[in-house]
Design goal:
By secondary structure, the chain is mainly alpha-helical. The chain has two domains: about 55 residues, Roll (Ubiquitin-like (UB roll)); about 250 residues, Type II secretion system (T2SS), domain F (Receptor-associated Protein), CATH 1.20.81. Helix content is about 75%, strand content about 5%. It has 16 helices and three strands. The protein has a three-stranded antiparallel sheet. Helix 11 runs antiparallel to helix 16. About 5% of the residues have low confidence.
């Protein structure tokens, strides 16, 4: 079914724009008018100016850029609509104008058309793997098979909202220290390239021998002014090298192993991965996905090669009949508390509930650890900046004091 972009006026006379699917432009106009939106212009989205690039499902699959927050909002709205008794196609159709992103509106329209053509909801979502991960698709498939799609969508929305909330908390906690670090670097760079050279020229005109701290400061200033571009090239080169190395399997393994060995930070990465593993595995098992399939999905989202390999080894043992807790314990990668709680869950027959508890414990632990670290970072950065600025001020003042002594 063709997709049309429109500009229109609502009942209050305010200009609105969006996307709508219909058999023809006339049908699109009629469809808009029934919702009391009066179109000013309407044109087919996949055939603008005659021969523009078509927005087919395959193109969207690779070029659409959709924020995770939009997918989360769509999932929550869809669970609400299906729970209220809306048919799936009608519920998806009502979501199209809700998104502010035209790219996501086109994606939702394509999904709806695929369902109308006879495909399942999960199969339609799989047309866009860069937007809907295997976790999402498998949970939807399980919900369709069991007839509990509204429950699955609600759980998916909860899962995605918790992940987004944790990510936002971490980003927010680190934002201020990172901003302070950037501002500190800029201030020091400005002093070295603009203020210090002027003061150095004054000292040279006087012809007085300068103390060691002043010579170090002036030397640092001359080095930064003369070779700042080399420093910039080195930083860019290191970033580029890191990205190239991280793309290789061996490089990614080395980086992830190194990160896990960093005191304090490695433990936090381990706990965060354990939380993500437990939350996702618990949600998949709750929605009827079998253990081996669930482990395969979880293996690809933990974000650390060492932990991913450990899950793969555990999955092989589970496939041979071993218990999950014992198999994970043999890898010696997951925290001992995770193993113990999983074993208790397996023995009590409440593995899914215990996995969710594991996720709650580690998510709270990671959040508290980050808050403590950021609360320590701020005074540490203030002290470091005070030392640097103090050194600069001392280096400038020492020659002045010596000049006053000579004058007397």
């Amino acid at each position: 079914m063709p997709v049309y972009e429109y500009t229109a006026l609502n009942q209050k006379g305010k200009s609105v724009s969006g996307i709508i699917d219909a058999e023809s432009s006339q049908a699109a106009r009629h469809k808009l008018r029934t919702t009391r939106i009066f179109p000013i212009s309407i044109k087919e989205a996949d055939n603008q100016s005659g021969k523009k690039e078509q927005w087919s499902a395959s193109a969207l699959r690779y070029f659409a850029r959709v924020k995770p927050a939009e997918v989360t909002m769509m999932t929550r709205l869809l669970s609400t609509l299906i729970g209220a008794g809306f048919p799936l196609v009608s519920a998806i159709d009502s979501l199209i104008p809700q998104s502010k992103s035209h790219a996501f509106q086109r994606v939702v329209a394509q999904i709806k058309d695929s369902i109308v053509e006879g495909n399942s909801f999960a199969a339609s979502l799989s047309l866009f793997p860069n937007i809907f991960p295997p976790l999402y698709i498998n949970m939807v498939s399980a919900g369709e098979t069991s007839g509990t799609l509204e429950i699955v969508m609600d759980r998916l929305a909860d899962l995605m909202e918790k992940q987004e909330a944790l990510k936002n908390k971490i980003t927010t906690a680190l934002a201020y220290p990172m901003l302070m670090a950037a501002m500190s670097i800029l201030v020091v760079f400005f002093l070295l390239t603009n203020v210090i050279p002027t003061i150095a020229n004054l000292f040279e005109e006087v012809g007085q021998a300068m103390p060691t701290p002043t010579r170090i400061l002036i030397g640092s200033s001359e080095f930064v002014i003369s070779y700042w571009w080399i420093i910039l090239v080195m930083i860019i080169g290191l970033i580029f090298a890191y990205h190239r190395v991280s793309k290789t399997e061996r490089g990614r393994y080395t980086i992830d192993r190194t990160l896990l060995k960093i005191p304090g930070f490695g433990k936090m990465i381990q706990k965060l991965a354990a939380a993500r593993f437990a939350r996702t595995l618990g949600s998949l098992l709750e929605n009827g996905v079998n253990m081996l399939t669930a482990l395969e999905i979880v293996r690809n989202i933990v974000g650390n090669t060492i932990i991913r390999n450990a899950i793969a080894e555990a999955a092989q043992e589970v496939g041979k009949g071993q218990a999950l807790g014992y198999s994970l314990g043999e890898t010696r990668v997951f925290p001992s508390l995770t193993i113990q709680m999983i074993q208790v869950g397996e023995q009590s027959g409440e593995l899914e509930k215990m996995l969710n508890r594991v996720a709650d414990v580690y998510e709270n632990d990671v959040e508290n650890t980050i808050m403590k670290l950021t609360s320590l970072l701020e005074p540490i950065m203030i002290v470091v900046m005070a030392v640097i600025i103090g050194f600069i001020v001392l280096s400038i003042c020492l020659p002045i004091f010596e000049m006053r002594t000579l004058i007397r």
